[in-house]
Amino acid sequence: MRKTERNGLPAPRWRHTAALIGILAAAAACTDAGGGSDEASDKAEGDAVDAAGLLEMVNENIRLTKELDAAEDRVIADCLEEQGFTVHDQRELGQHEPIVLLSLVDYYPTRDFLPEADIAAEWGFGWWAETEEMFDSQETQDYYEATFPDSFTDDAPEFDNSAFESLPDDERRAWSVAYQGEEATAGLEGTWTPEDGTESSEDGSLDFGDGATPSGPKPGGCQLEMIEALYGEPRQVEIDIDGGYLDWQWRPAEPSVDFAAIEAAYAERTAGSQGGFLDCIGEAGYPGWEFDDSGRLAMLDYSAMLYTGEPFDPGFTPEGGTSADTNPPVPDLPRDVPADFEGKRAYEVDMAVAFAACGDETGYRSAADSTYDAIVAEQYTAIETDTFAWQEEIRGYTAKAQELIAG
User: Fold this and answer.
1) Quick one: which H or E segment has residue 9?
2) Omega into 12 within 30° of 0, i.e. cis?
3) H-helix or E-strand spanning residue 249
4) pTM for the complete prediction?
5) pLDDT for 160
6) How many Å apart are CA 315 and CA 303, to the nearest integer?
7) What are the Cα distances from residue 238, in Å, to 201, 234, 248?
8) Could you tell me the mean pLDDT of each successive run of 10 residues in the chain, 407 residues long?
């Protein structure tokens, strides 16, 4: 399997990573089983209303963010135009169309190992699509379009940046410096390093003069003028990337759910329903599987062994060591597994069909997915009050920006 990128994420991990990043809330909470009583009906109706409210809340966050983006950019554009810059880089200014989410959970933890029955019969798990032989094929593109119609796209935002791109290099660089300052421009050019910056955060609490906690370049130019006019001085916030990093922020942070808590609760609540599924796939000819600590079947090693004969290479951590693998070992491949590509793919499809059937027949798929719905709904419900307060803050900053634009 080739370690390459699709939508910026390394294959074949990109699907799981996208799931973790893309989770926003729940489509519906679990309802009481059986009965059909008025009480059960009332509960189901209430859950649907709650889920719709969470979806509306998240979409409002997106809309308000894009509205503030547009107002900030107009303030910046006015600043640039006062300096004689009338043609702007549309990659930085001018993209403010909000997306609208139609569903709050678009990727369940079961998705990588429990394809829908019709998908399994035609495409298997999709492992074949990540191989050297098939990665760039039309069939692979057809597979992604069929299985990830809403959450996967290679389409970039459409905008006309030809006027800016046609400017000479020195004029485009001058625009960049006026827009965001010399440090940020040099950072984009790869000629600025964290050591060029200051030696500690604004309040001195995070010292990175020794390079232990590097920082991105401080905003400058018209961007900094906008920040100071709307928010005051930008601040440095430590984020957990590559062992620690200081990033510059100025807006109030949007409340976020605890994704680690979601994962932990999901693994705990689905543990009791795993046994029936594992027994079923074992009887179908695929024994020896175990769920990992996240409540998933970690199939990367198995798929890599099938197509390459080698376990999946997780790469290296920022510290230089190999990534620790805490998953239970995957079962060995059958001794009679086919040696040719088409035979391997046929084996994959048969396996996926068996897994999909067991997921449906044992009720594991529906139980796991509804559990995930409920957990994510709980997490987003817990931050509703903070989110509504954040929305009011954002509306206030948008109004302030509009006053600056009006002069």
Assistant:
1) strand 9-10
2) yes
3) strand 245-249
4) 0.74
5) 86
6) 17
7) 9, 13, 9
8) 32 31 33 33 44 91 95 96 95 83 84 93 92 88 79 54 94 95 86 52 47 74 97 87 76 92 94 96 96 90 88 54 61 92 95 97 96 91 95 98 93
pLDDT score recorded for residue 101: 82
Alpha-carbon span 347 to 126, nearest angstrom: 12
- How many residues make up the chain in this entry? 407
Q: Which residue ranges make up each domain of the chain?
A: 5-24+34-105+155-256+383-406, 117-150+258-377
Residue type, 206: L
Q: Name 31's Cβ contacts closer than 8 Å, sequence gap at least 6.
A: 40, 43, 44, 47
pLDDT of 28: 31
Neighbours of 30 (CB within 10 A): 19
Dump the DSSP string for 353-388. Answer: HHHHHHHHHTSHHHHHHHHHHHHHHHHHHHTHHHHH
Residue with structure tokens 């933890």?
Answer: 109
Q: Residue type at 290?
A: E
